[in-house]
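Could you help me review a protein record that somebody else here produced? This is what I was given.
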Amino acid sequence: MMRKALLPLVLASMLLAGCGPNAGSSEYSLSPEDNARFLADNGKRPDVKTLPDGLQIRIINSGHGKKVTSVADVVTVSYKGWTIDNHVFDRTDAGRFATFEVGKLIPGWTEALKMMREGDEWQIVVPADLSYGVEGAGADIPPNQTLVFNMQLLTVKHPEPNW
């Protein structure tokens, strides 16, 4: 009898836990005005560096490994990407990673990776013109969207020279 009484309480608490302030809600919509406001608000944070082209970087952890030196480098990363309304559109699952050639990514990723070292964990905010621009990317990323990524650079592999 006690188990039957606990089940509704457990389910209710799980439902309420999913309704916290970071549970997919956001004060920003996907409008051009909110994209601009998000970039301006985020750029005011003392731990955020805004580069001349608008890319914003917040260092979460600093690594001490190899540095990316070329767009031909192949990197292994763990990451999560979302729009400013907190819609997660891509991620590596826990304990998994993805491998990319640096020069074959959106410009904001390429730029950030060229400044990173193995072990670095950064949050980058990528304005639309450094991500998917006016085209967007399928149903998950509408046109002209600012994107946010938490990314950790796990390994860097420099290509072998072709002598």
Summary: The CA atoms of residues 127 and 146 lie 4 Å apart.
